[in-house]
Write a structure and sequence with these properties.
The complex is a heterodimer. Chain A is α+β, with helices and mostly antiparallel strands. In chain A, 43% of the residues lie in helices and 19% in strands. Chain B has helices at 2-5, 51-58, 70-77, 102-114, 122-141, 148-156, 171-176, 179-189, 205-216, 264-277, 283-291, 323-340, 344-360, 365-379, 385-393, 397-408, and strands at residues 10-13, 19-24, 30-37, 81-86, 91-98, 195-201, 239-245, 251-257, 295-305, 308-317, 413-419. The N and C termini of chain B lie far apart (57 Å). In chain B, the strands form 2 sheets. Chain B has a 6-stranded mixed β-sheet, with helices on both faces. In chain B, helix 2 packs across helix 5, helix 10 packs across helix 16 (397-408) and helix 12 packs across helix 16 (397-408). Classes of the chains: A alpha+beta, B alpha+beta.
Chain lengths: 470, 425
């Protein structure tokens, strides 16, 4: 009997043809999680997805209150507010509050980006009631005390000082400053500058909180193992007494693009050059978003795309290079990012520019098909963890995407044509109007940049001030 | 709680020694495949470092039936994600993708296990040596404080210990790797009897078994792998080191020898690190950052592996604060803890958090499947979530105090990273 099994096995092996890639077996079926919507008594909109695999409840409050609301001379305000929100609330001091949350095994986090602030809670079902009570205190009754603010301010200023160690951070922040200019609310680093953080007062914090952190200006996303009506009831009680105030209106300046310019920041003895290349573009909520996303995934959006295969797998200049669109609520920018070996700085820029022009000249049907297949088939994985579902929903809110965004996502990807991909390459990549930013060792890199023959090179310090032109 | 941590799995071995662990979970139409090879930088020798990690890169360069770059492309085209990691003890390769691609994954993984060498040429090796050297520049040489771990571990462990060198290897050693070195390394370690494969997610058990046999069964068993020799280590006296770096704020590191992974004392030291630095109320955070404001950040952790463990404390000084001041406060806090022990509240908080993080960690299939492989590697039993949690729950306050006394009163390596004295604009 054993011998017979072995025979069968062997004959099976002989049939195995390794030269052919096995095809997928059958089709998978995937049902989108149902997104339920309801509004609390105070006007707060709630998006809820019931998920029962584990006894976990996750809440995330998305507030339309990022650093674009910071006055330029007080840049860093929203981050400071976010680090201050959980420093004492509802009669509990900073350490008491942290202690109470920790005792429950829950995780509370407050963060901020240029567009939004996020107050999130991850809790086990068994400690949800107590966790929700503390969570609601942070949202509705933060202390925002002077003493706590001074302490958090000192910490933030030190973070700004520390960030100057990181060539990648300097390159990204100064690139953004050049692309947006200081006239845009997105032009200065979210963390602020030492002198702008110094200027923030308790009054600024209080005003930011009262005008922006309100039910009308927020959406609550809940993913978890709980019944909808019970949740609604608990939230109504927890967030009672949280009201809406007048909100400031922010205008966003879209600076015009200019002819390609080259910038350089010195980092003595750097073993690598950090390169950023790109320019301002339209925002995310446009019908050609899908064509743009597919085009970028061919260009540099994933490991096996052109820029990475060229710079990494073919030339060995870098450990990894990629391109992308960074979107905010009103506009966005296209960028290529690559840390490269110092000696290869020039060739890397030449190759990147070649790829930017190349995508406008040639895209194959096969590449487009590959990009579509990748996007379509990874769709179910967007809904795997509690956090992933929350993030998918948060994107809908932040970018004001239509309610049926996920229901129509697959069709929207599938119907992009080759012509539309070309159009996206032409409309969203402008090879003659780039900001090229390099952070690296002057002695080794300067001659290479000059040899590019792209005109004058402006040298900046780590704060972005012009030091000189070559 | 008990039900959640109980993993329904099946483990068996193929005739060639490959261990297979199957874990069905039908909640989404995806699957995760994760293979561990029992080889890491500990299997390397002096002057020949960086092999295991460079090898991880070579495994994505195609094999006899899979053209260069296509391994990545096939998985991404299927909507999946993939990668590999190398540690001192093991190398893993993992991917997750829609569950109807099971056969393709087995084909890709088995092809590089069985047929990597015929597709390996000097050009691929040269390219990946360049890529890895760039990875090293990015993570070590050009990163703020990036050289710290290399300096600490090469001083904590003597030259004849397998943890003496960094996993990524030394620049010169990486440059010197030859094609025949790589081939020898492959034949020694990348054999079915030195690996375990976990497949989890939306799978059919009998069908999966049949396919695993079909693709991996014919790969011949290799020689058995020689056990790593790791001498007993201890420091005779404190080692003080200074390194200058392109940074703004000075930072101080302390590292003590402790105990290996998954022992009871390992759990006690994990909890100790939690009590020292995990929240605003933790001892070092509260005094150094919150009350005295002398440090910008602080962390403490038990870093444990197969052949050794270490306990590390790291703090960055605020501008104008001396590292001596930080050192004094850190040791004052350690003394207090060793003299007076820890409170029941601290213990309860730590245990509640560890329990909750166990549940939170089970959300993601890739990480769950990796955990099964890790448990299998260290404990021989993939379903060890219970054992692992229990190891923490049974630690009492006195065990933590004793662990601190036993390990943290011994000699240690102290590293200070100071801003370069050159002027910067």
């Amino acid at each position: 009997m054993e011998e017979l099994n072995r025979m069968n096995e062997l004959s099976g092996m002989e049939e195995l043809n390794r030269t052919k890639k096995p095809q997928p077996k059958g089709r998978i079926s995937f049902t989108l999680p149902e997104i339920e919507k309801f509004t609390l008594d105070n006007g707060l909109e709630v998006l809820f997805v019931k998920k029962e695999r584990l006894p976990i409840i996750q809440l995330s409050l998305i507030i339309d209150a990022g650093s674009r609301f910071d006055p330029n001379e007080k840049k860093g305000l929203s981050i400071l507010v976010s680090s201050l929100l959980d420093e004492g609330a509802g009669g509990l001091g900073s350490l008491e509050l942290s202690n109470a949350i920790e005792s429950l095994g829950s995780v509370l986090s407050v963060s901020s980006d240029p567009d939004a602030m996020f107050i999130s809670l991850l809790s086990l079902s068994e400690t949800f009631d107590k966790s929700l009570d503390l969570y609601s205190k942070v949202i509705t009754k933060p202390h925002l005390a002077e003493e706590d603010m001074q302490r958090e301010k000192r910490k933030q200023i030190n973070r700004i000082i520390q960030a100057k160690d990181d060539a990648g951070y300097i390159a990204s922040v100064l690139f953004e400053k050049l692309v947006y200019t200081v006239h845009s609310p997105y032009g200065l680093p979210e963390m602020g500058l030492t002198e702008t953080v110094e200027k923030i007062s308790s009054n600024d914090i209080r005003l930011f909180y009262e005008t922006l952190i309100t039910p009308q200006n927020s959406t609550l996303i809940v993913v978890g193992s709980i019944d909808k009506e019970i949740l609604r009831h608990k939230l109504n009680i927890a967030l009672l007494g949280w009201h809406t105030h007048m909100k400031p209106i922010i205008s966003v300046h879209n600076p015009p693009r200019e002819k390609t310019r080259l910038y350089f920041v010195q980092k003595e003895g750097a073993a690598q050059s950090e390169i950023r290349i790109g320019h301002l573009t339209e925002g995310r909520n446009k019908p050609d978003f899908f064509a743009r996303a597919l085009m970028n995934s061919i260009l540099g959006g994933q490991f096996s795309s052109r820029i990475n295969l060229n710079l990494r797998e073919d030339k060995g200049y870098t450990y990894g290079a990629h391109s992308g669109f960074n979107y905010n609520k009103v506009n966005g920018y296209f960028y290529v990012s690559a840390p490269v070996k110092t000696e290869n700085t020039k060739e890397s820029i030449v190759e990147i520019l070649k790829e930017l022009k190349g995508i406008q000249v040639y895209i194959s049907e096969k590449e487009l098909k590959f990009a579509k297949s990748s996007q379509v088939r990874k769709f179910p994985a967007l809904f795997e963890t509690y956090g992933q579902i929350g993030r998918s929903l948060a994107n809908m809110i932040i970018y004001c995407l239509p309610d049926d965004y996920f229901n129509t996502f697959l069709d929207n990807i599938k119907k992009v044509t080759l012509e539309e991909a070309y159009e996206a390459a032409h409309n969203y990549i402008i090879p003659d109007e780039l900001v090229i930013m390099v952070v690296g060792d002057r002695e080794a890199v300067k001659p290479q940049l000059e040899a590019l023959n792209l005109g004058s090179i402006t040298e900046l310090d780590r704060d972005g001030n012009v030091i000189g032109t070559v | 709680m008990d039900d959640i941590l109980k993993i329904n799995y099946e483990k068996y071995s193929l005739d060639n020694g490959l261990e297979v662990i199957l874990y069905p979970d039908k909640s989404l139409p995806i699957l995760a495949a994760n293979i561990w090879y029992r080889v890491g930088s500990a299997n390397e020798t002096k002057g020949k470092t960086g092999f295991a990690h460079l090898f991880e890169h070579m495994m994505f360069q195609g094999s006899k039936h899979v053209p260069k770059q296509m391994h990545f492309k096939y998985i991404q085209e299927a909507g999946g994600n993939l990668n590999g990691t190398t540690s001192t003890d093991r190398t893993n390769y993992y991917q997750s993708l829609p569950s109807n691609y099971l056969e393709m994954v087995l084909w890709l993984e088995s092809d590089r296990m069985g047929f990597l060498i015929p597709a390996l040429g000097q050009d691929k090796l040269d390219n990946q040596i360049d890529v890895v050297k760039n990875e090293r520049r990015q993570r070590y040489d050009n990163a703020p404080y990036g050289m710290a771990w290399e300096i600490i571990f090469s001083n904590l462990y003597p030259e004849n210990h397998p943890y003496h060198w960094p996993t990524i290897g030394y620049m010169q050693d990486i440059s010197n790797i030859t094609l025949s070195d790589v081939k020898d390394f492959f034949h020694t370690y990348y054999v079915p009897n030195n690996a375990s494969l976990v497949i989890g997610g939306d799978i059919n058990i009998p069908k999966t078994k049949e396919l695993v046999q079909r693709y991996f069964g014919p790969i011949p068993r290799g020689n058995s792998v020689k056990e790593v020799f790791a001498p007993e280590v201890s420091l005779e006296k404190n080692v003080s080191l200074i390194h200058e770096d392109n940074v703004q704020l000075p930072r101080i590191y302390f590292a003590w020898h402790t105990t290996n992974a998954y022992t009871d004392q390992d759990a006690a030291l994990d909890i100790l690190s939690y009590i020292l630095s995990s929240s605003k109320n933790s001892r070092l955070y509260k005094t150094l950052i919150f009350e005295e404001e002398i440090a910008q950040d602080i962390s403490a952790f038990q870093h444990s592996a197969k052949y050794g463990g270490s306990f590390v404390i790291v703090a960055t000084a605020r501008p104008g604060i001396s590292l001596d001041q930080i050192k004094e406060e850190v040791f004052r806090q350690l003394d207090l803890l060793i003299e007076n022990g820890i409170s029941p509240e601290e213990m309860e908080k730590a245990k509640n958090n560890i329990k909750a993080s166990f549940i939170f960690s089970m959300q993601n299939l890739n990480s769950l499947v990796n955990h099964l492989n890790e448990y299998n590697f260290f404990l021989k039993d993939p379903d060890s979530f219970h054992f692992d949690l229990e190891r923490y729950q049974k630690v009492d306050a006195e065990a933590i105090r004793k662990a601190a006394e036993e390990f943290l009163r011994k000699p240690y390596v102290e590293l200070r990273i100071l801003p370069k004295s050159i002027t910067q604009e």
